[in-house]
TrEMBL record:
CDD domains: BphC5-RrK37_N_like. It comes from Blastococcus saxobsidens (strain DD2). GO terms for molecular function: dioxygenase activity. The lineage of its organism: Bacteria, Bacillati, Actinomycetota, Actinomycetes, Geodermatophilales. This is Glyoxalase/bleomycin resistance protein/dioxygenase. Coiled coil: none annotated.
Length: 310
């Protein structure tokens, strides 16, 4: 069996969104969701976790309209940034910003390009890390950014783009509706869903463990936040899930215990059928059809093919 191609991508670094009510957004992510606001500059708030060395995991920018600004992936070193930018440019991929110094918290070296659907993607290295600590038992706040899911009108084509240009590797399919891609041993850092329009499907944050995941879910429910789907455990990825809306209709997830790929170089992608057991192994969640399917489609993204101002 041949080894899979290598990828320069090491991890998912952060997701950037824009929100029309900046104060309401920052309040939600700081208090309800449990992230730590690490910086604010000119209508942009940066949120991290005390357990994550990553400088920030989520950024929220004040804007008149809701949109996804940018999704950032990390690479090991500046030469990987430069080589990837050159390779994408030669392949005809539209570059937004050429490689250079980043002026966001943590600095670093990076560039930006648009994927085939018009999403803005950042690749960076040498971003300064923050001092991190282990979360305590029962500390029900996100430990790190787990994954992001995109909606695409042509999921196979979007999958092929990320395989070809970023070297991400296919882990599994859920029927022909959702594919999962990885850069290392985590089951996925990116998933692509077949949908009626291009949008952000959801962003997932990993909790310390099962108890902390349940406590975080319960905290949001007690505070009056609508639980869209969960708590449960998926088939593909074997991870737990609880999905909530943020104040603007973006779907956010608490998860934990994401499947690890034991020998990723010899992994054969699986195809999971669309069954209740593969949606939720435990059978504890509400039906996926009740609320979550319409919720995950989200609004059509207003920021496609548009540079983010920051």
């Amino acid at each position: 069996m041949s080894a899979e191609p290598t990828t320069p991508i090491t991890h998912l670094r952060y997701v950037g969104i824009a929100a029309p009510d900046f104060e309401r957004a920052t309040e939600f992510y700081r208090t309800a969701w449990g992230l730590e606001q690490v910086a604010e500059d000119g209508g942009i708030a940066f949120f991290g976790s005390p357990a994550a060395p990553e400088n920030y995991l989520l950024r929220v920018r004040k804007d008149s309209a809701k949109r996804m600004d940018v999704v950032a992936f990390g690479v090991r070193q500046a030469s990987d940034v430069d080589a990837l930018a050159e390779r994408l440019g030669q392949a005809g991929v539209r570059i937004d910003r050429e490689p250079g110094k980043l002026d966001t918290p943590g600095g670093g070296h990076g560039f930006r390009f648009w994927d085939l659907d018009g999403r803005l993607i950042e690749i960076s290295s040498d971003v300064a890390e923050r001092t991190a600590r282990e979360l305590e038992p029962k500390e029900s706040i996100p430990r790190k950014l787990s994954h992001v899911v995109f909606n695409s009108t042509d999921a196979p084509a979007t999958l092929a783009f990320y395989e070809k240009h970023l070297g991400l590797r296919l882990t599994d399919w859920l029927a022909d509706r959702l594919c999962f891609l990885r850069s290392g041993v985590d089951h996925h850092i990116l998933a692509i869903a077949q949908a009626p329009h291009v949008a952000l499907n959801h962003v997932s944050f990993e909790m310390r463990g099962l108890d902390e995941y349940m406590r975080g879910t319960g905290r949001l429910v007690r505070d009056g936040h609508r639980l869209l789907w969960g708590p449960g455990r998926h088939g593909p990825g074997d991870n737990t899930f609880s999905y909530f809306y943020d104040p603007f209709g973006n779907v956010m997830e608490y998860t934990t215990e994401l499947e690890q790929i034991p020998d990723e170089k010899t992994w054969e992608p699986r195809v999971f059928e669309l069954t209740p057991e593969n949606s939720d192994q435990w059978g504890t969640s509400n039906s996926i059809n009740e609320v979550f399917i319409p919720a995950q489609f989200n609004d059509p993204d207003q920021g496609l093919w548009t540079p983010s101002p920051v």
